[in-house]
Amino acid sequence: MPLDPSLKLILDKLEAGGGPRLHELAPEQARQFYEAMHAQVEPAQLAVVENRSIPGPESELAVRVYRPEGDAPMPALVYFHGGGWVIGSLDTHDSTCRALAKAAGVLVVSVDYRLAPEHRYPAAVDDCYAALRWVAEHVVELRVDPERIAVGGDSAGGNLTAVMTLMARDRGGPPLAFQLLIYPVTDADFDRDSYRRNAEGYLLERAGMQWFWDHYLPDRERRGEAYASPLRARDLSGLPPALVITAGFDPLLDEGEAYAERLRGAGVDVTCSRYEEMIHGFFSMGSIVEGSRRAVEQAAAALRERLHV
């Protein structure tokens, strides 16, 4: 199936514009570029959007709480943004969190975890788990149902989502009702077929993923740890039901679908949906890409079903 025509136009414009590739930039330059890419999105309106500061492992963490219209206590989705653990912020994923909160009718807590290379693995993991525990411990204040808490994220945020389910299982909580994995990073392996097939020209490139991993976890021996590469975890049993969304023109396609298969083999209830014409990052492009709107609605429908909205 060919690339979606609207995405081809975007990629052609980026190619015509020239300029360095992501992996040729310094982290701060890459962050500025990524912020600019997401600056023009029109956000959905919600009842309440509130910035909060919560205790983290080493310093305060910023979170953003999105509350749609609805009766309390409502279900919650703790969301971890993408960006290869190096770029991305509450602002770059503001429209995504708003869209999910409104379409699913769930309270969303977006987490501004520490970024590499200033804060390497496992800093992001520790921050995300601290934020997840904070949500579970403040359900009365947040007016959230403690039995209907889900986790979700895209790309590196999908990696952190998978890791949170492992940590919650391994450490005795908090209990999780669902996991939303949007083209997740699940393994530090750049030799899979989708990495070769989609190595260049589709926004996220093989060299870019190597750049991300080198900043996040330069110690290659540790990349096999389950909390870095969840696909390599020995045991995936006892994890919450999952929706895994992948894209046909994404280097991460194979590892996302391999993770879904491993979850299924471990007895986890999994739906895996491949959007054949899409590229990595398409989920946040709802204003210009129809496939993104379909994927957001699928994610919202899964949240409504699994969290009994």
3D structure, described in words:
The chain is of the alpha/beta class. The chain has one domain (5-306): Rossmann fold, CATH 3.40.50. The chain contains 10 helices and 8 strands. The chain has helices at 5-17, 27-37, 94-104, 123-137, 139-142, 156-170, 193-197, 206-216, 253-265, 290-306; strands spanning 48-55, 60-67, 74-80, 107-112, 144-154, 178-182, 242-249, 270-279. It has an 8-stranded mixed beta sheet, sandwiched between helices. Helix 3 crosses helix 10. The chain is globular, with a radius of gyration of 18 Å. The protein starts with a helix and ends with a helix.
What are the SSEs and their pairings?
Blueprint: H1 5-17, H2 27-37, E1 48-55, E2 60-67, E3 74-80, H3 94-104, E4 107-112, H4 123-137, H5 139-142, E5 144-154, H6 156-170, E6 178-182, H7 193-197, H8 206-216, E7 242-249, H9 253-265, E8 270-279, H10 290-306
Parallel strand pairs: 3-4, 3-5, 5-6, 6-7, 7-8
Antiparallel strand pairs: 1-2, 2-4
Helix pairs in contact: 3-10, 4-6
Keywords for this structure?
single chain; 309 residues; alpha/beta; Rossmann fold; 8-stranded mixed beta sheet; 8 strands; 37% helix; globular
